[in-house]
């Protein structure tokens, strides 16, 4: 069986398999650790494994390499990009930063290593609000690349961060009308939403948080039914942890596509994970200057997160 082969190969090669909640269920089941992007970064920074296989998207594997530069880091499919990270390209971003002198640059972890080299502090959806709030109220801040997360933080903190106009193709497509119709069918269901969703969706959410925050909220909640507005891969762990509760994926605008699935995340498969371990490719390579410059804002995030108890 491929699962046993993967486990045997990973043990032989002293590799740890880290997976994001958006990976297909079979990958989550075979992984050593499954978590959100903050947890993945922390595991990558602290593992004593000799190699890391990051089952997620490219920026997650890059972050692992930046935090563990002496380890080999693999991504089962090198084409597993992120539409949000792609919406922020280095040349345009450098010009944007230049147009806003005296601003502190806060970048979401969903960015390339090149963007991180131009960043003062990285955040994830687990700590973005609190890290932004750790700056003085009158601080001049740039927030990139997710305009929805940036708008959400501006609205809850009263700040006026300058936002990069990027977005995720999955989170932008949830349908308010269909979520409201589902609420009609399941009046007791709570709406859980990731802050990458548009503000119209966040307005009807009962709880807003990162993937792990949504999972913890659903697990602790007395409610039995939830409409989940984030990538549908998270439903696997929600259901595993809460077998008696019902989780309904929030529908996208277009009913002909599976748009609440991240096509990039789903490029990784068990077969590609097996091949990756066997052939030790595709591997993530970054030059030393990029690693050194990109590590600073990520390490600052990890320090701030620890200090803030996140
Ligand atoms: P998390 O930080 O919640 O893991 O989210 C990452 C992501 O890519 C959301 O689309
Ligand atoms: Fe990127 Fe969106 Fe996929 Fe998350 S769901 S990895 S933000 S494309």
Descriptive labels:
15 helices; globular; binds 1,3-dihydroxyacetonephosphate; four-stranded parallel sheet; 310 residues; single chain; alpha/beta; binds iron/sulfur cluster
Kindly describe this structure.
By secondary structure, this protein is α/β, with parallel strands linked by helices. Helices cover 43% and strands 15% of the residues. The chain has helices at residues 2-12, 25-30, 37-46, 58-67, 83-86, 90-98, 113-116, 128-133, 147-157, 176-185, 199-203, 211-220, 234-241, 270-279, 288-307, and strands at residues 15-20, 33-35, 51-55, 72-74, 104-108, 121-123, 141-144, 162-163, 190-193, 207-208, 225-229, 246-249. The protein has a four-stranded parallel β-sheet with strand order 2-1-3-4, with helices on both faces. Strands 6-5-7-8 form a four-stranded parallel β-sheet. Strand 7, helix 9 (147-157) and strand 8 form a beta-alpha-beta unit. Helix 1 packs parallel to helix 14 (270-279), helix 3 (37-46) packs parallel to helix 4 (58-67) and helix 12 (211-220) runs parallel beside helix 13. The chain starts with a helix and ends with a helix. The model has no long low-confidence stretch (mean pLDDT 97). It binds 1,3-dihydroxyacetonephosphate and iron/sulfur cluster (SF4). Iron/sulfur cluster binds at residues 57, 82-84, 110, 168-170, 196, 231, 262, 264-265. Residues 57, 82-84, 110, 168-170, 196, 231, 262, 264-265 line the site of iron/sulfur cluster.
């Amino acid at each position: 069986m491929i699962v046993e082969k993967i486990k045997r190969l990973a043990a032989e090669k002293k590799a740890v398999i880290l997976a994001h909640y958006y990976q297909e269920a079979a990958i989550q089941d075979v992984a050593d650790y499954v978590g959100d992007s903050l947890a993945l970064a922390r595991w990558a920074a602290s593992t004593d494994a000799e190699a890391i296989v990051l089952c997620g998207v490219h920026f997650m594997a890059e972050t692992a390499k930046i935090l563990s530069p002496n380890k080999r880091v693999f991504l089962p499919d090198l084409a597993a990009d992120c539409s949000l990270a792609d919406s922020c390209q280095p040349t345009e971003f450098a010009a944007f930063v230049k147009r806003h002198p005296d601003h502190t640059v806060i970048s979401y972890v969903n960015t390339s290593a090149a963007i991180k080299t131009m960043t003062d502090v990285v955040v994830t959806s687990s700590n973005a609000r609190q890290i932004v709030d750790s700056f003085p109220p009158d601080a001049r801040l740039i927030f990139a690349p997710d305009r929805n997360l940036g708008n959400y933080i501006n609205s809850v903190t009263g700040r006026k961060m300058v936002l990069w106009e990027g977005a995720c193709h999955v989170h932008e497509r949830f349908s308010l009308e269909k979520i409201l119709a589902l609420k009609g069918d399941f009046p007791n269901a709570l709406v859980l939403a990731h802050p990458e969703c548009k503000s119209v969706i966040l307005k009807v959410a009962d709880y807003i948080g990162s993937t792990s925050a949504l999972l913890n909220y659903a697990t602790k909640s007395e409610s039995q039914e939830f409409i989940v507005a984030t990538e549908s891969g998270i439903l696997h762990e929600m259901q595993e942890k809460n077998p008696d509760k019902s989780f309904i994926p929030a529908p996208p605008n277009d009913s002909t596509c599976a748009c609440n699935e991240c096509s990039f995340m789903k490029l990784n498969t068990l077969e590609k994970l097996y091949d990756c371990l066997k052939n030790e490719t595709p591997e993530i390579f970054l030059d030393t200057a990029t690693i050194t410059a990109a590590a600073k804002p990520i390490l600052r995030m990890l320090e701030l997160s620890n200090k803030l108890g996140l």
